[in-house]
Each structure stands twice: as structure tokens, then as C-alpha cells.
Protein 1
Amino acid sequence: MRIIFLSLGLVFAAVLFPSPSFAQSEDRAHTFMVRGLAAVEMARNDDELIAAIDEFRKATEIDPALTVAWYNMGKIQAKTGQFQDAINSFNRYLAITPQADDASKVRDEIIKLEYRLESQEKLQNLSGIWDTSDGLKARIDVTGSKLLIQMQQITFPQSTEVWMYDDLLSNPNTTFDFRNSPVIRLELRGNKLSGTIELSATTSLDTGDWCILPAETNQVNGMLEQGKIVLEVKKQKYKVVMNSNDGWLSSPKVRCDGVIPTGDMVTKITLTKPVER
């Protein structure tokens, strides 16, 4: 009986189920094979597909000639980004059945996986310490096509107006717009980057009397080009009011009278290639 399994967009190779008269080891391999298919049917996302790989691997360890297990394991490994392992599994499938009806398609799949593996390795080379346009450092960690950028520091010039005693301070940014260790989460598609930046709440002094700028999660877009990462970061602008209607000779106690959103702005950040790995 020929059966084609279809689950999660994956088409599984046809398998001729062994008869009850087969050896016990082959029955155990068949059991793990079916358990793997059950794991695929139950999986709600790619992370849960990992359990199926374990079951297919157990089947191949018991019966190294079980081609359907090699094939299905290769499909799941490719689906979950394990490109080298998928290539190995498909090669084992072809080594056992070089004249299979789908041999040509499997060879084409290997070529595609080799290209994806090369692209993945190039992306992994982005991991490391980068220089920022402010002369500081940023750490980039890569997982699949996702980048996690941890900035040492970041400033947003002209994003905050600070009014003290009803007077506009001429240079408030060195006081208010200093953000420690912001986190940028991006996904790379081609050479385009998109994602978010997470900014924690911040204040200029270690006292609750000064206004606190609220935490923000904002949009980030960018490009990877010629060894550089160029990002455009969206940022909320604020008007900060301190000691409103007080005079310079009033009580020296500092009081926050309000943090008022006044619109959005975009700041460009440039990261240059890693200075160390």
C-alpha cells in the first residue's frame, strides 16, 4: 500500500509499510518512523517539528536503509533551517535509492539547500562587535535571518525640548536623551532590514524629581550594504516642562510638571563592519 503524507505544507515520500513478518528491529524502525509522522501532524510551529527529527533519526539508527525516514528527516531539517543536516539526509536517501522516481527533484533540492547554506554562513559572519556612527560599540548576534543588536549607548539629538522655569534650555539633549543599552531586533530579507528598537524609560538624574521619558518600542528600517548597516530609527519627540511658572529665585527643589508628546522624528544610525569576531 502506497501512502503519501501531507502535513504543514510538506509532502512526504511514499512508504511501503513492512509486513508483520519483518524482523523485530525493522518493526521498531517502523514504529519510530510513524511516531515522527505523528510529531509532524501535531506540530503547531517550526520549533515543535524538532521532535519529529528525533523520531526519524531513531528510525535510521535502527534501520540505516529506511529511505523514507531519511527523506522525511531531510524535509523537516530543511524546514527548520538545519540546511547542512538536510543535505546529508537527502544524500543518504539518494545513496540508498539513486534511481528513485523523485531522485532528480531531490538533487535539485540539495542544490537549493547548498545556496541557502552559503547565504546563512554569510549572515553568520555579521555576528560580532561593530562600530557605531557615534564612535561607540554595538554587539550583533545572528540567529537564522534575525539580528539582535545591543547598542552600547544611543542619543537622539533634538528629540526633546526641556523648559525650566518657563525658559527653553539651549542644549537639553546631553541631559535628557542619553539612553543606555537599547536593543534593536531586526530581520534580514535580501539586503533589507526591518524590526523594532526597545528604549527603556530614562531620566537625567538619579532622582524622581526630574521628568522621566517613557519607555518606547519603535520601528526600525535599514539596509545592509558594502560592509555597513545603515538604520533609520523612529523616535517620539517630547516637550519636558520643569518648575513651570516658578522663578529662578524660587525654592531650589526641582519639580517635573509634564512630559508632552510632540510628534515623531527619524534618526540615522550607521554601523561599520566588525573590528573583532
Note: The chain has six helices and 18 strands.
Protein 2
Amino acid sequence: MSATPHVTATLPALFVSHGAPLFALDAGTTGPALTRWGSSLRAQYPGLRGIVVMSPHWMARSVQVMTGPQPATWHDFGGFPPALYQLQYPAPGAPALAQEVLALLQAAGVAAAGDAARPFDHGAWVPLMHLFPQADVPVVQVALPVGAGPAEVYALGAALRGLRSQGVLVMGSGSMTHNLAEFFGGAREPAPYVVAFSRWIEDALARRDLPALLNYRSQAPHAARAHPTEDHFLPLFFALGAAGDDLHANYLSREVMYSMLAMDAFALEPVH
């Protein structure tokens, strides 16, 4: 890799909803919005040297960090059209950046370990195909620890906050709503509970109300219906932790797919 230009600004943190695996082919309005944002980011931050991403499709008993130099593209799903299984995202890994991530986590008291064989799961490569279609930005995944709650995941992002001023995009990939039991309902209009939950989160972000966000389970409307399990919402707290006080949410998408899958994506930027 060529020498990294000097980075003079702090990158935003990013949360994206990665949707169903078909989002790789059926981009809706969210995919093009991510592509535009990724292109703008690269123009604004020519020192972008890597991406650190958490996806709920890598869960581990303890914190793990991808350390391999060329992770494979894992089609970790079944029953989809053959074209989806032909897709590859050949972004390089970043072993040196992975060691930085491990050191920062360990300095924060997190017992993290490296995994040199880990491939990209679809929670990482599907949104990255839209964000950086050239697949030329090195990527490191961090596992979501089993049993962690919002505060614990926030702390993981907070431990990596300093990377944002060193040319690294810290990203949580999950879903704003994720009730798969309602996936095949046939309806196409956004379900009212999906809109109510998503806009409550947006309002809490606008108020910079971190306590409310951390306690969304008891405070947000329809939280248990929007997320019967927490795994797909927890990467939002990874992004929030990395953002710290930079809680201005620049929304890239508020699309809802299949009536129940909110595709909200936003960059968390410094408040000017």
C-alpha cells in the first residue's frame, strides 16, 4: 500500500442498516445514497487508510478481531438467487491496523484476540459493496461479543475513538428494525411501528440523549417488536461509542424495505 497522506481532520463514525442479503443486488434508494456518501468521504478525507466494522453476523464468546491480509467473501445465507453467490468483495485486510485495534481494546481492559482466518460476512461486505465499490479500502472486522448490551458495545467503540483522527472509518452495520417473523407479510408500506421506532431513535440522536439511547429497550416505542433480539441493533452503539460527543446524525437513508426492515443509515459528525 502506498504512503498514507497526512490526515488533518477527524472522520465521522458511521451506522448503516445492511438489510437482507439481496440488498447487494436490490439496492433501493439506500445503496445509491451510500455510494454517494462513500465517494464524498474519499474526496474529503484523502487519508482514509482503513475501515473497522462490527456486524452482528460475527458473534463470539469474547471480542475477536480479524487479522488476515486477504479475507474471503463469505456467502453466509441460503435460498437466494444464484447471482448473489457470485458476488465477491475482494477488499484487503489490514493486519497492521488490526494490531492497533487489538492494542487499543486491550488498553481499555478488553480481552481481545486476533482471528487470521475470519472471512467477511454479509453484514460487512454487502453494505461495503455500496459504500466503496472499488473494494480497495482495507477492512478489519470486530466481533460482537455474545451477551454484551448497549453499554458494553458502546465501550468497545469508545476504545477505538482515536482511530477516527488517524484515517480510519469506524462503522457499525446492523439494522434499524429487524423483526424477521414479519418479513413475509406481503405488505409494502412501512409498518407504523417501524416508523415510530426509527423516528424515536432519530429524535434521541437530535437531542444528543445518550442515556435514552442506551436505555432504548424500555424507552423507545415498540422496541421489543422492532428488535425481538438485540443483535442487529447493537452495532449502532459501536458507532455511537466511536463518535463520542460527535452526535450530529447526518442521515443518508430512511428507507423501509419489505414493510418491516428500516434501512436507516447515518454518519455521526462533529457538531459545528
Note: The longest helix spans residues 30-44.
Protein 3
Amino acid sequence: MPDFQYCLNSSTIRPAKILDKIRIAGTVGYSAIELWHDDIDAHVARGGTLGEIRAALSDNGLAVPTTIYLKGWFETTGAEHVAELDECKRRMAQAVEVGAIHVIAGPPGGMADHELGARNYRELLELGLSMGVKPAMEFLGFVDDVNTIEDALEIVTKAGHPAGTVVLDPFHIFRGGGSVESISLLTDKQIAIMHFNDTPASPPREQQHDKDRVYPGDGHLDLRHLLALLEGTGYRRWLSLELFSEALWAQDAMEVARVGLEKMRAVVEG
């Protein structure tokens, strides 16, 4: 397998505060960390600054592939869209301040107007690029509509902007019922990041949610095949450990991050 870069999605150690998450990621040996805007807002609400976050990232030698996430931009029109876009602007400004390359743009929960979403994604891209960050289209396996690689790629293609990208995730590929082979439809430049995780064989696919994700290699997915498909696109960047396990949140955050990195390496390098 090629030399991917290992990233920690900070949701994996959610109870920790943002500066602790950054320190843990650097200490354990990750090269990057994905930050959530809720954590950034909580830090600022406690009297912290974005400068402190930037300094912590620099001290620990961590890149920020993405911040998470933008919502409401896809499905809205008129005054509601203006209001949602204002919040997206605020979050994108934060993303730029902490040095993020991409900001993840999530789909709506219900059925979606793909034409509207494509127009709005192009608008979001142009706005983000003018600010210095690239919004990346995410599909979510448990939503009603935009739940496969094909759906996300359709939005990106219809948007017609060369900077359009997709977020990949083994859990969402499985949960949405799409084909992992569809990774081959993408080019390297169309992939913002690969979230990395595994899923158990039960409960049934249709009943699984974020909380059911497990460490890479602890589930039933053929992650080696997924990585081979990813390699075929030319992608050589981040694999980001993204879990939402209450059981792991109750454990020592440093240990969870350490075990997660070991398990990713075992899948990729073993």
C-alpha cells in the first residue's frame, strides 16, 4: 500500500477539550487532525482564542485537512439561505484562521433537490475559495437521499467547478448501500479526505448509525480492497480515524488515539 498520512478526527476523543485533542494527536504520532467547529466555539466561549489553537497545532506539527461542518447551505433558498450562508461564512472564517485546507459541507437529512444543491454548492465553493478554504461535499449513509458516492459526485459534477471535492468514509459507503467500487469513479483531485473506520456485521446495515462504527480492522469491511481502489485514483493523502463511540469516549483519550493509530497502520501497512 502507498504511504498514506495518518490523521485523527477529533470526534474520536470527543470529551477532551480542543487543545488537549491537539496535544494528544501530536504526542501519539498523527500528522494531522480534523477539528469540529463546535469545539472551536466552545474554546472561544471559555475565553480562549483562535491564536491559541493555531499555536497548539504548530507546536505539535499538525496539519488541518478539514474542519467540520457546514449545514443548511444545500436545501435553502431566499432569506433562509442568506441566514444559513452567513453561518457558513463564520465557520469558513474559523477554518481559515486555524489553517484548514477544506471545510466539510454536509447534505440535508431528507430528500434533496440535486439541481438546487449543485447550484448552492458552486456558490459555497466560490465563497470559500475567496476566503481561502475549499468546501468539500459529504454524503451521509443514514440520510434519505445524498447517501452514496454517486450522489455526492453528481452534486460536484453538476456544480461544474474544478475545485469540487468529495469526502469518503467506509461507514457511510456501507450504510448508504452504495458500492465501494464507485471510488474508482473519482480522481485524486476530487477527494478531499478519506475518513477511516470499520463497521460490525450486526445490527443490520439499515439500522446502523455513527455510534456503531468500530476501529479499522475490528469490523467486517474489506478495507484493504477499499485502499487499493483509493490507491488507483492516485490519492496519497490523509486517512482520518473517525469514530463516535460512547464506550471509547469513556476511556483514556490518549490510549484511544494510540490504539486507533496502531489499528490503522495494521490495516494499511500489514
Note: The chain has a mean pLDDT of 97.
